[in-house]
């Protein structure tokens, strides 16, 4: 058994404090599980001139203790501040535009304050209403408004940045990065999560009914699974493992209630745990016991606590100070070590029974869906089960192939670069550059991970440990998108962007690809610099000993290493700065518009003011036009879409009570989109043909379109009285 099989917990706990060298923690410096910071001071490397801790700190009470203000000095606060500033600025820059679906979430939150408690998004058997209740809390404190509506996803986006930081810290610990590289990796990951590509930030800050909540649960699920496998195979007590399994079960079913978009994370976590179990079974080799003759001793997994490792030192040759002492770890059983082994596979299977603790926690997380499903023929569960597309056939495989092509050529480049629909040529040029750089980092990371299974160099294994789980998650998101039945809408064209939001979980893995590449490059340059300094010190020592003259050194390689570090920093800042620049170049009116209705007015406040001034209480309009007006009027004006009544198979009656109220109202108004240069719109012709007197007003929408508001005066006009009134669409007929 190797050193890594015995001291994983000790190495995790003491790694940051014991990595005195600037390079990665050497295997030879792993420590036994002794008690107290002073007891392992003798195991520290002798030469610590370039240590990140002073000699007194390394041997004194400083080691193992953090100052109270260390948390306040963390780079995480800078990342959180940047994330908050760029998101608030983007919302202000776009003038608080919301589309119909977002307004519907706001209406639900307003109705919660009046005693209406929904389980799902209106008219759907999926997308649980957690976001609605969180927004309702904000409304209760500051009142309903567009800015309060946007505040909820902005606040939760900070949680995404924090969880990215935490997952990066866990990955860095598993890869045993030295302190400087660990901080570098975590900071870059958090910074790139703070300044995501524009398209991803727009989706993240939308109130679509559960996207940002699902992103948070995805990261929590990945982090929980990662810690479960490390603690499980590190010898954690059964009680702790049971609680960890329960937490994973709670997150999975809570996520399935909120939004089945969490499925890629569930897939990634399942594959990760399964792969770790297989690797553990392969690595658990019975060995002849060193105690009691003939007994077998288990590997790392069966130990309830790590075994101590005794380090034996081989002195370097006399007079050669340049050769450090070599420490050879050898496992030595203690009184706490088991002397008799048991079957490794059966032991692992018994530990897998702890996963049953996830079942009651999963039921708890899915409780709202169970209560709702019991009274609605379980249509919510049927929806989740049918997301896979309903089986495999030649036609289905053909659709998956087409969706995969659309994903590779349209959807994925948009997520990586941040391109949004209807952007100008300058933004397009910037986004293509960003797409090239992001794609390079992704494929370079994936290539190095694949190479690590063939060429087991420590540097390549470290890359696999840093980016293995994020890469698995990214692959799961791509696979889930390509086989999902909802992704078929991506075949309608790249410009429409009808399905891109279903692939946005991929963005959660982007920070780790960038952080991996920058950290590995930085470590390579730094270690080259350190190696040169060590050779210089060795030459100086030989010169002082009189053994040989000191060779001439120009210092050029050292300056080149520093120059390389500087170029990496400039490249990182250029990438992040360009991403932030695109936030300012985006079109304020189109950025947050629904892809189904880009002609809707970005500023509809004049329409709300007109309706209130004319004492108009009820109106007919397309849902993407109606619901933002209803939300901004705080439900004092009721609007409804007649399309579900005209074509019930293609439209959903989101709020039946609103539809009934408008249907039975006296002379409700009618709002439709018209061409800007249309002197005699279709609606006016229909009313004139029926001798209906009316009052009209026209308001500007997006370029090329206007909003026509007509109030019948002589009688009530119902959209159901004739097929000619099938005009309630986003774009005029």
Describe the structure in your own words.
The chain is globular, with a radius of gyration of 31 Å. The longest helix has 36 residues, at 510-545. Helix 22 links the parallel strand 5 and strand 6 (638-640). It is α/β, with parallel strands linked by helices and 733 residues long. The chain has helices at residues 8-18, 55-59, 75-93, 100-112, 130-142, 146-174, 179-194, 198-204, 211-232, 238-258, 263-283, 344-352, 358-365, 367-374, 379-385, 394-417, 425-452, 458-483, 510-545, 556-585, 605-613, 623-632, 643-646, 656-663, 682-689; strands spanning 287-288, 296-297, 309-314, 326-331, 618-620, 638-640, 669-675, 694-700, 705-712. The strands form 3 sheets. Strands 6-5-7-9-8 form a 5-stranded mixed beta sheet, sandwiched between helices. 53% of the residues lie in helices and 6% in strands. Among the domains are: 1-71, no CATH class; 605-725, no CATH class.
Which properties best describe this structure?
single chain, 733 residues, alpha/beta, 25 helices, 6% strand, disordered N terminus
Strand arrangement in the largest pleated sheet: 6-5-7-9-8
Query: What composes the largest sheet?
Result: 5 strands, mixed
| Shape verdict | globular
Report the radius of gyration as a whole number of Å. Answer: 31 Å
Report the β-strand fraction as a percent range.
5-15%
Low-confidence stretches: 1-64, 287-343
Total beta strands:
9
**Separation of the first and last Cα atoms:** 75 Å
The quaternary state of the protein chains shown equals single chain
Structural class estimated from helices and strands: alpha/beta
Helix content: 40-55%
In DSSP terms (H or I, runs of 4 or more residues), the helix count works out at 25
What is the arithmetic mean of pLDDT? 82
């Amino acid at each position: 058994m190797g050193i890594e099989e015995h001291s994983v917990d000790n190495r995790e706990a003491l790694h940051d404090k014991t990595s005195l060298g600037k390079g990665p923690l050497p295997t030879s410096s792993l420590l036994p599980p002794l008690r107290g910071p002073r007891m392992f001071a003798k195991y520290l490397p002798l030469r610590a001139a370039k240590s990140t801790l002073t000699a007194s700190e390394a041997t004194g009470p400083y080691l193992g203790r953090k100052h109270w203000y260390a948390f306040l000095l963390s780079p995480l606060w800078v990342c959180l501040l940047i994330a908050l500033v760029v998101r608030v600025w983007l919302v202000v820059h776009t003038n608080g535009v919301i589309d119909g679906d977002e307004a519907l979430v706001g209406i639900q939150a307003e109705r919660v304050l009046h005693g209406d408690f929904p389980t799902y998004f209106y008219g759907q058997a999926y997308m649980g209403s957690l976001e609605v209740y969180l927004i309702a809390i904000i409304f209760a404190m500051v009142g309903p408004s567009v800015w309060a509506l946007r505040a909820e996803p902005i606040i939760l986006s900070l949680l995404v940045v924090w969880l990215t930081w935490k997952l990066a810290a866990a990955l860095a610990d598993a890869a045993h990065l030295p302190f400087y590289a660990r901080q570098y990796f975590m900071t870059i990951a958090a910074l790139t999560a703070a300044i995501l590509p524009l398209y991803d930030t727009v989706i993240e800050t939308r109130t679509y009914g559960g996207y940002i909540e699902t992103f948070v649960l995805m990261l929590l699920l990945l982090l929980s699974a990662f810690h479960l496998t490390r603690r499980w195979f590190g010898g954690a007590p059964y009680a702790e493992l049971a609680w960890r399994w329960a937490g994973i079960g709670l997150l999975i079913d809570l996520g399935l209630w909120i939004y089945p978009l969490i499925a890629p994370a569930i897939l990634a976590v399942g594959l990760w745990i399964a792969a770790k179990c297989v690797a553990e079974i392969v690595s658990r080799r019975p060995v002849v016991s060193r105690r009691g003759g003939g007994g077998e001793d288990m590997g790392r997994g069966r130990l309830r606590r790590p075994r101590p490792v005794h380090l034996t030192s081989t002195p370097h040759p006399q007079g050669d100070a340049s050769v450090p002492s070599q420490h050879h770890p050898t496992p030595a059983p203690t009184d706490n070590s088991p002397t008799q082994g048991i079957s490794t596979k059966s032991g692992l299977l018994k530990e897998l029974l702890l996963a049953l603790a996830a079942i009651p926690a999963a039921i708890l997380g899915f409780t709202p869906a169970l209560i709702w499903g019991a009274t609605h023929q379980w249509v919510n569960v049927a929806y989740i089960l049918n997301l896979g597309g309903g089986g495999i056939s030649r036609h289905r495989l053909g659709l998956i192939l087409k969706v995969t092509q659309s994903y590779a050529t349209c959807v994925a480049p948009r997520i990586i670069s941040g391109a949004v629909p209807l952007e100008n040529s300058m933004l397009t040029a910037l986004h293509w550059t960003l797409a090239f750089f992001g794609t390079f980092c992704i494929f370079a990371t994936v290539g190095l991970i694949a190479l690590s299974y063939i060429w087991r160099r420590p540097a390549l294994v470290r890359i696999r440990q840093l980016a293995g789980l994020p890469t698995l998650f990214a692959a799961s998101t791509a696979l889930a998108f390509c086989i999902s039945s909802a992704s078929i809408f991506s075949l309608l064209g790249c410009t429409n962007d009808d399905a891109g939001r279903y692939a946005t979980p991929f963005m959660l893995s982007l920070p780790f690809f960038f952080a991996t590449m920058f950290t590995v490059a930085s470590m390579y340059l730094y270690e080259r610099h350190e190696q040169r300094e060590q050779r210089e010190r060795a030459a100086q020592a030989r010169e002082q000993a009189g053994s040989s003259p000191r060779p001439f050194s120009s210092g050029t390689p050292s300056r080149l290493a520093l120059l390389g570090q500087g170029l990496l920093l400039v490249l990182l800042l250029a990438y992040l700065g360009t991403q932030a620049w695109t936030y300012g170049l985006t079109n304020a009116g189109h950025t947050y518009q629904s892809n189904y209705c880009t002609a809707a007015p970005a500023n509809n406040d004049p329409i709300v003011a007109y309706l209130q001034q004319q004492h108009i209480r009820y109106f007919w309009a397309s849902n993407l036009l109606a619901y933002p007006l209803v939300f901004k009027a705080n439900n004092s004006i009721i609007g409804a879409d007649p399309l579900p009544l005209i074509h019930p198979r293609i439209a959903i009656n989101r709020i039946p009570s609103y539809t009934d109220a408008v249907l039975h109202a006296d002379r409700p108004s009618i709002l439709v989109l018209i061409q800007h240069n249309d002197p005699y719109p279709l609606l006016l012709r229909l009313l004139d043909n029926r001798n209906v007197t009316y009052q009209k007003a026209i308001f500007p929408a997006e370029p090329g379109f206007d909003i026509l508001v007509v109030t019948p005066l002589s009688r009530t006009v119902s959209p159901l009285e004739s097929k000619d009134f099938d005009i309630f669409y986003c774009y005029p007929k």
